[in-house]
């Protein structure tokens, strides 16, 4: 059964948000150009959390996911690192769905 992990309304004031999955792993949601994606909160460079000191996951322009530790930049559509020490590697995606009420669910694994 899919697990409820968030709501679109939580991404209105800030387009990124960290969360803890039901199994205890740390993850985050980002909303860029109206599309929501979910990722494990692990940089592929050294396995450290990505979030910036303020808890954000997006660079100042709000277009790319940024690693707060190394400054690596990732495409929010694919999780590919396009700048930094892990260039060409990918974030670990999480399969999600959004229902008509804006509820965000983690797909059953």
From TrEMBL:
Stretches assigned to the Rieske domain: 6-87
Q: Which Gene3D superfamilies match?
A: Rieske [2Fe-2S] iron-sulphur domain (2.102.10.10)
Q: Which GO terms describe its molecular function?
A: 2 iron, 2 sulfur cluster binding; metal ion binding
CDD domains reported for this sequence: Rieske (cd03467)
Sorted alphabetically, the keyword list is:
2Fe-2S, Iron, Iron-sulfur, Metal-binding
The record's annotation in PANTHER family points to:
PTHR40261, RIESKE DOMAIN-CONTAINING PROTEIN
**Record protein name field:** Rieske (2Fe-2S) protein
